[in-house]
Amino acid sequence: MTEEVDLFVIGAGSGGVRAARIAAGHGARVMVAEEYRVGGTCVIRGCVPKKLLVYASRFSHEFEDAAGFGWTVQHPVFDWTTLIANKDREIDRLEAAYNSTLSKAGVTIVKSRAVIEDANTVRLLADERRIRAKHILVATGGAPGLGEKIPGIEHVISSNEAFHLTKMPRHVLVQGGGYIAVEFAGIFAGLGAQVTLVYRGENILRGFDDDVRHHLRIEMEKRGIKVITGCTVAAVEQHGTHFSARLSSGNAVTADQVMFATGRNPNVAGLGLEAAGVRLAKNGGIAVNEFSQTSVPSIYAVGDVTNRINLTPVAIREGHAFADTVFGGKPTRVDHSNVATAVFSEPEVGVIGLTETQARDQFMKVDIFKTQFRPMKATLSGRDTAILLKLVVDGESDRVVGIHLVGEAAAEMIQMLGIAVKMGATKADFDATMALHPTAAEELVTMRKPTVSHIRRAAE
Ligand code: NDP
């Protein structure tokens, strides 16, 4: 017998879980299929465990910095097994919480891979059941891609495996220059490993403001991370417990762990999308309209599988908006502009809005307000580090169109600054805000004169 539901969600990650819960709240009969663990990438092997590892890695700096404040900290010892066990316990707790939230909302969870058979039918591979659904939501996320199949690729791990290593590597090679590469380089270095980061481009974090890229690279190097740019890993050979990574430059790097963070691909394979007539976009994600509806009207898609902005809160918003649109009688679009983002590198990066280059392409006059300074804590700790704060202002309207921060608590700062930018705050609004002393963030409201003003000439 075929079961019938109003909504069938494929994938119980951030986007799918939110959509399922809200749709059920609107009175829909909802079923969710998950082939791995409830919670998805963010909870199980992404943002959450990553941040826990970031916290762990930062203690080494705290121990070092403490001496200047009068503390004697004798030989702190780090135990990887304890960290991973505690992290796993927390992830188990969160997974249970997600399961319980769904159950309480009246959502049926099935542990199975699901394949779309047609516009309104899904087949569960675990027991070959067929489910008829008025609507289907694809929320299958993405998965790490390791790039070209170089010799020795079988020795390379992705971030997925990095969360479950049985022992802490001492020499790590990370390939990539994006979020995951710089975050894991910071984690391993903070935990005491020697880290080499290999990136194919000119500088890490392509797409970010050039000052941020430059500043972060210098800060990472100060913390002992070796950054090699302009080349790739061409082959990986195993020699006993170690690996030798041959670079395209001809050099070799020895490591006991080689990790690639070379991007993530939307999980679209084997879902029956093509047969059902669901079109893909050029970037490999499922093509959707502003309501997350695919080329098949009864099938929707949210989150990383659509390859729009691949961030958890965006997936959650998209899932919520979908449920309100389809089941709540309230058509809702997600505003993908001015989304704040953070890189949990060491030190942190927080950004929102346009880079200086983007603003100069877009506006006739652009004012840049930029400051770099030694954080107060470093005056006693003696740490060689600097904070970067940068405002990008449309010189004609005075609106702050971009903010770029590198330094401690940059993620926390940018979340709050995001409200001001979203509200259309001007530089005059920043100037009118009283400083809070002594903080690093006070510099954001005390920069009076532009460091530089760009005026576009008519021919440009
Ligand atoms: P990114 O797209 O951020 O970075 C991928 C990196 O790998 C780039 O530097 C890219 O180089 C490089 N690369 C790609 N292909 C190859 C190749 N074949 N050989 C060598 N280098 C290659 O992906 P990540 O994997 O770091 O993260 C995936 C996404 O997950 C992020 O974009 C982000 O949306 C999300 N994320 C967000 C986090 C956060 O919010 N803090 C944390 C982690 C992930 P190039 O620049 O030249 O293209």
Give me the secondary-structure topology.
Blueprint: E1 3-10, H1 14-25, E2 30-33, H2 40-45, H3 47-66, H4 80-104, E3 108-110, E4 114-118, E5 121-124, E6 129-138, E7 142-144, H5 159-162, E8 171-175, H6 179-190, E9 194-199, H7 210-222, E10 226-229, E11 233-239, E12 242-247, E13 252-255, E14 257-260, E15 264-266, H8 273-276, E16 299-301, H9 312-327, E17 341-343, E18 349-353, H10 356-362, E19 365-373, H11 376-381, E20 387-394, E21 400-406, H12 410-422, H13 427-432, E22 452-455
Parallel strand pairs: 1-2, 1-6, 2-3, 6-16, 8-9, 8-14, 9-10
Antiparallel strand pairs: 4-5, 5-6, 7-15, 11-12, 12-13, 17-18, 18-21, 19-20, 19-22, 20-21
The chain binds NADPH dihydro-nicotinamide-adenine-dinucleotide phosphate.
Residues 147-148, 175-181, 183, 199-201, 206, 232, 261-264, 310-311, 341-344 line the site of NADPH dihydro-nicotinamide-adenine-dinucleotide phosphate.
Write a structural description.
- The protein has helices at residues 14-25, 40-45, 47-66, 80-104, 159-162, 179-190, 210-222, 273-276, 312-327, 356-362, 376-381, 410-422, 427-432; strands at residues 3-10, 30-33, 108-110, 114-118, 121-124, 129-138, 142-144, 171-175, 194-199, 226-229, 233-239, 242-247, 252-255, 257-260, 264-266, 299-301, 341-343, 349-353, 365-373, 387-394, 400-406, 452-455.
- It is of the alpha/beta class.
- Strands 1, 2, 3, 4, 5, 6 and 16 form a 7-stranded mixed beta sheet that branches. Strands 17-18-21-20-19-22 form a 6-stranded antiparallel beta sheet, with helices on both faces.
- Helix 1 (14-25) packs parallel to helix 9 (312-327) and helix 3 (47-66) crosses helix 6.
- The chain is globular, with a radius of gyration of 24 Å.
- Bound molecules: NADPH dihydro-nicotinamide-adenine-dinucleotide phosphate.
